Amino acid sequence: MAVSKELLEILVCPKCKGPVELTEAEDGLVCNACALKYEIRDDIPIMLIDEAIPVKK
Hey, is 57 helix, strand or coil? Predict the structure, then answer.
């Protein structure tokens, strides 16, 4: 089971409170403003700033 669309619509970046987008591989959520990826593990988004992965812009 994937992350529900309803959940994806209300989630925001915990750092800047901006929008996040699902990655193409559907393995994480990316905040383009902060250039951070929040992983999705076992269908649960890990929205912790300390565990976010920097992404290249």
Answer: coil
Nearest residue to 3 (alpha-carbon basis) of 44, 39, 47: 44
Q: What are the DSSP calls for 1-56, one per residue?
A: -PPPHHHHHH-B-TTT--B-EE-TTSSEEEETTTTEEEEEETTEE---GGG-EE--
Query: What are the φ/ψ torsions at residue 8 (nearest 5 degrees)?
Result: -60, -30
7-23 confidence digits (pLDDT tens): 999 999 999 999 999 99
Model's pTM, two decimal places?
0.90
User: What one-letter code names the amino acid at 32?
Assistant: N
pLDDT at position 56 over 70: yes
